[in-house]
Amino acid sequence: DTGVSQDPRHKITKRGQNVTFRCDPISEHNRLYWYRQTLGQGPEFLTYFQNEAQLEKSRLLSDRFSAERPKGSFSTLEIQRTEQGDSAMYLCASSPTGTPNEKLFFGSGTQLSVL
Amino acid sequence: AQSVTQPDIHITVSEGASLELRCNYSYGATPYLFWYVQSPGQGLQLLLKYFSGDTLVQGIKGFEAEFKRSQSSFNLRKPSVHWSDAAEYFCAVGTGGGNKLTFGTGTQLKVEL
């Protein structure tokens, strides 16, 4: 169990650029979640996958955001035409099956700064 | 829609003192309730959870929480705080499907030596 890993840890970009983050969940975890956390706030749900299927997307996830999990293992989150309001910590989490009382395992996050 | 309120943004306690962090939730059905802790540069770690049954739940690191349906509360407690407990604490409620969590805004705990 190597934990959930996210890459990169930090990303600084200019407004209007595209960025992509990667998340590697714990091996054999079927569920994968993306959350966003801004300063002084708790994490906010963005989207989740059951294997390769994206089952739900929050209204927070505008058309500029896209997430994939092509082989049911790692996932990518892409933000196109970044805006300063996208600056946040992007957290990935995974869980074995997704039952309601199941523990989520979180990565350390990717801190995005949009200048 | 579900929501979580953590009324205390910052709390400072002395090492060895007792601790209580407040959490109130709003959810129409029986909630799944969680407490997570986040240290700088670290991912969120689950302290404990309430699903059903005994309303007093024990967690890791000596933490416990009590579910009170009548007060819509799930307060976190620890009898004696250690300096290593300094971190940010998040209460969360889970919906019945998908294990999607709604988090509170967090309470930053400072421990004075």
Explained architecture:
The complex is a heterodimer of chains A (115) and B (113). Chain A has 115 residues and is an all-beta fold. Chain A has strands at 5-7, 10-13, 19-24, 31-37, 44-50, 53-57, 65-68, 75-79, 88-95, 105-106, 110-114. In chain A, a hairpin with a 6-residue loop joins strand 7 (65-68) and strand 8. The radius of gyration of chain A is 13 Å and the shape is globular. Chain B has 113 residues and is mostly beta strands. Chain B contains no helices and twelve strands. In chain B, strands 2, 5, 6, 10, 11 and 12 form a six-stranded mixed sheet that branches.
* Morphology of chain A: globular
Mean pLDDT of chain A: 93
Count of β-strands of chain B: 12
N-to-C span of chain B: 41 Å
Taking all Cα atoms into account, the compactness measure Rg of chain A is 13 Å
Biggest pleated sheet of chain B: 6 strands, mixed
Low-confidence stretches of chain A: none
